[in-house]
């Protein structure tokens, strides 16, 4: 209950809509920068796992629990 109050006070009612896009951009830029274009395709599973793991960890910093992350289009 205290966490919910803190989240609401600091981030507002629509915190997930404000926080998630910035976290997603941050994580994607960080991960994608580690690979060249062909590696992003050939190592898609590794890239997806890295993105998933980092998104889950970053979201946790904001008390957001991500159950699943899926990269549906990588080109």
UniProtKB/TrEMBL annotation:
Keywords: Membrane, Mitochondrion, Mitochondrion inner membrane
GO biological process: mitochondrion organization
Any single Pfam family the record assigns to this protein: Band_7
Domain Band span(s) in chain numbering: 6-74
GO cellular component, one term: mitochondrial inner membrane
Cell location: Mitochondrion inner membrane
Similarity comment: family membership: Belongs to the prohibitin family.
Annotated protein name in UniProt: Prohibitin
């Amino acid at each position: 209950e205290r966490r919910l109050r803190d989240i609401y006070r600091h981030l507002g009612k629509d915190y997930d809509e404000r926080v998630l896009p910035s976290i997603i951009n941050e994580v994607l830029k960080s991960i994608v920068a580690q690979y060249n274009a062909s590696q992003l395709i050939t190592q898609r599973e590794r890239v997806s796992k890295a993105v998933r793991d980092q998104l889950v960890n970053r979201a946790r910093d904001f008390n957001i629990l991500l159950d699943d992350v899926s990269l549906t289009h990588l080109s």
